[in-house]
Specification:
The chain is an all-alpha fold. Helix content is about 80%, strand content about 0%. Helix 3 runs antiparallel to helix 4 and helix 3 crosses helix 5.
Length: about 160
């Protein structure tokens, strides 16, 4: 059983590492992230993978200050928070769509269904964020804000050249 768990964890770690490099790669292709993130070797965005590994390692080392037993818990909570952010943004976009009233035809039943699904999704996402705890949300927000700063610099640079 332990061997199966080890194989599963290794596969998940490799998958998430490769997946997390795809977002900055796509942003770099659109000119919204540094061009270094577009470098690929055999189809893999190597620079993005390297940055992901370095940041994850720094987060792990930082969390060792709380004791080695807490490191795994904190990494799971930070991951939970950062994975929840896109869902929160999606529910915010859906709320905007519902409230703005820019729909081709108004079907009351569909409108009510969409509103209920959106409210449940938003509540569940907020519950996940609250359950992650203060420390995990704090660390996750620091990583998100670092990305926002890079995005702002690149967007300003792109606007100047246009």
């Amino acid at each position: 059983m332990a061997l199966a768990a080890l194989v599963s964890m290794t596969g998940c770690l490799n998958g998430w590492t490769l997946l997390s490099a795809q977002t900055p790669y796509a942003a770099a292709r659109d000119g919204l992230f540094p061009a270094a993130f577009t470098r690929r070797r055999r189809g893999v965005p190597t620079f993005g993978v390297g940055v992901t590994v370095v940041l994850a390692s720094l987060l792990t080392v930082y969390n060792y200050t709380a004791g080695s037993a807490k490191v795994f818990d904190m990494l799971v909570l930070v991951t939970t928070f950062t994975a929840t952010v896109p869902y929160l943004l999606a529910t915010a976009a859906q709320v905007f769509h519902l409230v703005s009233g820019r729909r081709e035809s108004v079907d009351r039943a569909r409108l009510v269904r969409d509103a209920v699904v959106t409210a449940v999704a938003a509540a569940f996402s907020m519950w996940l964020v609250a359950g992650a705890g203060y420390a995990a949300v704090y660390q996750g927000v620091l990583f998100l804000f670092a990305g926002i700063v890079v995005y702002a610099v690149m967007a300003a640079r792109r606007q100047r050249t246009a």
